[in-house]
Amino acid sequence: MRLFSVSRSNLPGLLVWGFGWTAMWLLSAQLGLSNLGLILVLTSAIAAIWLSVRITLVVSLIALMAFNWTFVPPLRTFTIDFHQDALLLLAMLVVNIIIASLMASLREKSRQSQVHADAVEALRSWSDRLRDAEDPRDLLPALQTLLEELSGRECALLALQNGLPSEDLASATAEHGVIDKEQRDALWHCLRSGQSLGPATGRYEELNDLYLPLRGRGTPYGAALISDALGRPFSQAVQAQALCDQMGIALERHHLLCQEQEARDQAQAQSVRNTLLAAISHDYRTPLATIMSAASLLEQQDERMSPAQRRQLARSIVDEADRLRRLTNNILQLARLDAVGTQISADWESAEEIIGSVVHRMRAHVDYPRLKTNVQPDLPLIRGDSLLLSQLLENLIDNAFKYGAPHSPIEVSASADQHLLTIAVSNKIEGMDAAQFEQFFLPFQRGNQAHATGVGIGLALCRAIARAHGGDLLVRNGDASVRFECLLPLGSQPQMKSEEMNSEERNSEEMHS
Fold it and tell me: Looking only at Cα atoms, what is the longest distance across the chain?
């Protein structure tokens, strides 16, 4: 295969010699000996572009002998009668040697330039792959393949999973390739020292293998092994080290990004905890103080109070305890729904019953005339958790009373089409752009109204409940109004017995009445 390749590479040069000899043969009658000699020199110079120095010298010597035999008198002999003919032949030989040497040097420089260009392109391509990789550790097998192609030998890698451990632990690294115990110890030494080991490195040159560190800007993050390097050096060792250094820098950058993200997550978690504790300590303090004050008055002044006063204090205790209940339930439900893999307890529920029970309960605590209902008759059943859906609607109504304009109506509506059940709460707002409500879907975000209370997780919990049911919670803007829509998907309705259907019809009639 090598001989065939060499002969093909030399073919253009041999063809040039063929054309040159044909030209000299055809022009021999019209041109003198010196002009024919110039054609020979020109042919040799052009052919040297493709022929090696050795082949050029051999072919040139043969060409000079043939030139002497064919064109130098006396013809058909190697005898030279005139000294100028001998000088011509000698000058032609020297010129051919100079041209062959220069062309060989030029080809070698061109080859080296191409090798350097290929190396730069390989480094650039490898750098792009590392830059685009989400985790550079996934490209460790690719680096092993590149080193094997570059060196022509078996290679192996040892890379740190995270930071550098205090001891050489196998669990702290990932290995690629076959590595024995002695090689593993050498890889660890190369990793910790950050210096190459083995033949032609100046360190442990008696080793049979070459060890290259995966150097980052700070510390190494691994090491590479190139086997059977003793007595068989390869010229691309610098290229191999550059590939390893790029991987080391990528591993270091990924490690720093992971540390940064971990620190950011910890700071965010700490901020959330601090915010939660501050909000809870603030929002629990007021109802607890009211409960303690009312209970203390009942205990100490019970005999001096009228029944109306005792009922008022008892109502204050009940209201503030209910406020604490809602606050605690919101916090616990949000924490539960935010957990990964949380499954809700779903069953077929009547949307009309859920809305009716929530509206009835809320009317006992808030301004009754302001709360309106507009429920489409014969709503389909919804598959979900009735407690969570009740809590969602209760939070939306409570939010409307907190942020709505005083004495403005609050409407609870429900409608359904073939695919979705929409439960909406709408009200007028003052002092706030309706678009600002979108940010309140984030936990611990509250309105800036002076009378606004609560931890600021009501809307975040509502959206979490809606999404846990496969739906979503959206906010619509209107003219000085805001409308929160809970969209819940409808599945295939279950078959209901006649008694259950009659019961549903009666509940619907009571709801609308």
Answer: 154
